Amino acid sequence: MSNWALALHGGAGPLRAASYAREEAYLADLLKQGAQALNAGEASLDVAVRLVAALEASGHHIAGKGAAANADGEYELDAAVMDGAARKAGAVAALRGFLSPIAVARAVMDCTPHVLLVGLGAEAFAAAQGCERVGDPASYYQPIITRPVAPGELAHGTVGAVVRDNAGRLACATSTGGLLNKTPGRVGDTPIIGAGIWADERVAVCCTGQGEMFLRANVAADVSARMAYGGQSVHAAAAGALADMAALGGDGGLIAVDAAGNITMPFVSEGMKRGCITQAGRFEVKTVR
């Protein structure tokens, strides 16, 4: 069943006038690392989590090290992972004090009967699992966005991976750090299974954009539903799900890979940092084009 495929995103909403050469180069390197792992037979879930952890640690995106403080000066991060073959998932929300939220989300999936842990409970669980802590938050975090959020503005900024491995297994992982001065306790679509992330036997999906709108449209699971009940291709299903979200007034994008290894990376925003690589030879990294 070989025909592995991998896509990554670094968030929607980049500005056309800005340069993203550094971010694109980093995505390209991670894609090549992922390709090597998949060629070696690694499982889709392991590859997805490892690449998202690298995106968190890079400081290039609004996730992990690139997260910004909320209105109380605290760093609250969200992440989720889903294994399509087993429909297993793990997620954390409003997590404080740990280097890799995606690692904690993976532990929720692997080590508990639950799907989502939040706040103090998530922190206690992460500590009990021995997950690595942030030392001094003020020294560690390097916010990508430093401007204040305007009243009513919805937070952007996510990283994600969708993967099909040589055995045909689909998986996805995603992580976010939110924008400067977000309301304490705010949780968007990223850790919500079905809204910001989804994987099953048909497709793996990761979303990025205005989280509240993705929640209201349940975008990630809607892609799979359009494929299952409407017989749509992954390309048509992703475009339709995004159009439904955009009709609510939102913007953003998604990456998705289907069971055959077909990848789509549509967006309805000014841009989306994204890239993909496949065993069939497709390789691209783009932002606004």
Description:
Helix content is 31%, strand content 24%. The protein is of the alpha+beta class and 289 residues long. The chain has a domain at 5-193 and 271-282. It has an eight-stranded mixed beta sheet with strand order 4-3-2-6-5-1-11-12. It has a four-stranded antiparallel beta sheet with strand order 7-8-9-10. A hairpin with a 5-residue loop joins strand 5 and strand 6 (170-176). The longest helix is centred in the first third of the chain and has 19 residues, at 21-39. The relative contact order is 0.21. The model has no long low-confidence stretch (mean pLDDT 94).
Per-chain topology:
Elements: E1 5-12, H1 21-39, H2 44-58, E2 77-83, E3 88-95, H3 101-111, E4 116-118, H4 119-128, H5 137-140, E5 159-164, E6 170-176, E7 197-199, E8 203-209, H6 211-217, H7 219-230, H8 234-246, E9 252-258, E10 263-264, E11 272-278, E12 283-286
Parallel strand pairs: 3-4
Antiparallel strand pairs: 1-5, 1-11, 2-3, 2-6, 5-6, 7-8, 8-9, 9-10, 11-12
Helix pairs in contact: 1-2, 2-3, 6-8, 7-8
Helix content: 25-40%
How many DSSP helices?
A: 8
Gyration radius (Cα, Å) is 17 Å
Strand order of the largest sheet: 4-3-2-6-5-1-11-12
- Low-pLDDT parts are none
Number of E-state strands: 12
Mean of pLDDT: 94
What overall form do the CA principal axes indicate? globular
Main β-sheet description: 8 strands, mixed
